[in-house]
Amino acid sequence: MRRRDFLGGVAAVTIANAARAQSPSPVHRRGRIKQTLMRVNFGRDTKLSFDDMCREAARLGCVGFDLIAPQDWPTLKKHGLICTMAPAMGVTIRDGLIRPELHEAIEKSMHEEIDLCAANAYPNIITVGGERRGIGYEEGKDRCAALLNRVKAHAEDKGVTICIEVVNSKYTDPEFGRADAIFDRLAWGADVCARVASPRVKILFDIYHVQIMEGDVAANIRKYFPLIAHFHAAGVPGRHELDDTQELNYRFVARTIASLGFTGFIAHEWRPTPGRDPLDSLRTVLEIMDL
Fold it and tell me: What pTM was computed for the model?
């Protein structure tokens, strides 16, 4: 081998090693809590592409992302991630499961989405009760259960769980609440689940919303645990990071969930505090919940 070729090879190896050294190494999570992200965690003004977000999520030891549309599922798979909660189809925050005039269209959309998730081995789809607009809570339960009873067999056959999200109706600003939402108390959703009586119809327990409406987060997690399929997490107040700037002790919440043997996912739905680096926030928050 000529000396010039040898030195050139050494230089190339040195440069490659230096590049690897500068690249942050993957984080290996303990695994009792399976954490997943959302696009919102990276900030409204992020310059990162979804591919960049997935790369960082995988490096940080996350399992996947919530609420990602099917056209972006190939990007998730590229990085070894999954869609841990498919976005709602056929319903909106305003018009949800309690609108009987929409039931036929919602049922069709749900069947299609269940098939799509099953084909990709994705476990959950989100849905919402919607706004009351004069509908009573009992009537809303009847309407919601009637529709879910029409789709539960298909969900059971395909192994996909329909998750009804509990939200807060206290705040009228849509950034922080869902004014006039019918599913704003856990007992309402628990009653709907009882009327449907399916292992594939459960509650999406949004910790942020529950803290605002009912408090007693740990006690409510224990009480309703058999009905909970999935969690969302954000700080109260402000819907920011899960740290000591807000009122919930998320380390304790994580321990509570883990102690119950939860095998599903906890998705981060917080928004970075203005002026803070979203990637720094991600690293800190993921460590808080890592057990």
Answer: 0.90
> Which pLDDT band, with edges at 50, 70 and 90, does 25 fall under?
confident
Q: Residue holding tokens 């009637």?
A: 146
Is there a catalytic annotation at residue 269? yes
Q: Identify the sign of the CA torsion 249, 238, 270, 280.
A: negative
Could you tell me how far CA 164 lies from the centroid of its own chain?
12
Residue-wise pLDDT for 106-138, tens only, equals: 999 999 999 999 999 999 999 999 999 999 999
Q: Give start and end residues of each alpha helix (H) in 34-88.
A: 50-59, 73-78
Return the CATH number of 28-288, one of 3.20.20.150, 3.50.50.60, 1.25.40.10, 3.40.50.2300: 3.20.20.150
Distances (CA, A) of 171 to 24, 179, 209: 40, 6, 10
Look at residues 258, 236, 256 and name the one whose alpha carbon lies nearest to residue 247: 236
Q: Tell me how far apart the terminal alpha carbons of the chain are, to the nearest angstrom.
A: 53
In whole angstroms, what is the distance from residue 140 CA to residue 129 CA?
8
- For residue 164, give the nearest of 180, 145, 142 by alpha carbon: 145
285 closest CA partner among 254, 242, 235: 242
The residue annotated as part of the active site, out of 131, 165, 175, 247, is 165
Q: Residue 56 catalytic?
A: no
Domain regions of the chain by residue span:
28-288
Q: Is pLDDT of 16 > 90?
A: no
